[in-house]
Prior knowledge:
Strand order of the largest sheet: 1-2-3
CATH class: Alpha Beta
Helix content: 55-70%
CATH topology: GMP Synthetase, Chain A, domain 3
Order of helices and strands: HEEHHEH
CATH superfamily: K homology (KH) domain
Number of domains: 1
Number of helices: 4
Radius of gyration: 20 Å
Largest sheet: 3 strands, mixed
Structural class: alpha+beta
Amino acid sequence: MASHNNKRLSEDIKREISVSMREFAFDTVVSVSRCELSNDLSHCKVFISTFEGGEKTVEAVARLQKATGIFKKNINSRIKMRKIPELIFLPDNSLDYYEKISGIIDELNEGSAKNDLKSE
C-alpha cells in the first residue's frame, strides 16, 4: 500500500510543480518528465526536460533549483503532507539519448540496405 501512496504523491507533486512552473518565463518549452519520491518521503527527484535538450535543460534546472522555496510553498498549500520533501531538480536527457539511439539504428539500416544492393 505504501508503494501506491508513494506513486500517487509523486504524481501530485509533479502536477503541482508543473502548474507552478507557469510563473516562470523560459525561452523554450520546459516540462517535468517525472518525479521520484524516496520511500521515507524526505527527497523528491524532479526530472526536467526541454525540446532543445542539452544546455537549455541544464539552464532550466539551475533556474528551477533556485526557486525551490516557491515550489515547496505551493506544494504545501495544495497537498497535505506532514513534511514537504527536499526537491532535487535534475536534467532529463532521455530525448537526447533516444535521438542518438535512433541515429545509430538508421545508420545500421542504411548499411544493411547498401549491402543488399551490392549482393544483387
